[in-house]
Prior knowledge:
Elements (H helix, E strand, L loop, with lengths): L1 H20 L1 H5 L5 E6 L5 H21 L6 H10 L1 H14 L6 E10 L2 E3 L2 E3 L2 E10 L6 E7 L2 E5 L13 H11 L2
Amino acid sequence: MKKYIILLLSVLSFGYILLNKNVEETIIPDEAIRFRVIANSNTIYDQNIKIQVRNAVQNKVFELLNGVNNIEETREIIKENIENINELVKETLKKSNYDKDFNVNYGYNYFPKKEYKGITYKEGKYESLVIKLGSAQGDNFWCVLFPPLCLIEVDEEETTDTEYKFFIKEIIDKYILKQ
Length: 179
């Protein structure tokens, strides 16, 4: 009986290690479109502008993508509406009397390595809609437009806790590691 328990514990431990090592691949699929807004700086004013732009664009894009289930259609909708998104950013900034330049880009854009709540997101170029405000030297917001999985928000006041749970990990934590 002890041999079976040891074997079971070994298999579960190995599974636990594999799950923790590859968790980032589970969270963001290979075929995903990211959304990122980079603030001019980390001043309260610039971060608030970033949030206003994020809210306006995110609401519009999610409205446009409502009911869309495939990445090809998502790409086409974003491409067809890039000028509308650009105008929306321009209007949002104008309402806030924000006089700095901005850039809206859809394509493959660089994302730095990011560690968030124990998960490491690899640096690299990802298909994305990126909005740079001013010199784009401040903290940024990013999430996944397709599939719609908002994940990261650097601004701590705006961050909502996101917790990812895996059934096997919960069993190991509850019954094996706690004893």
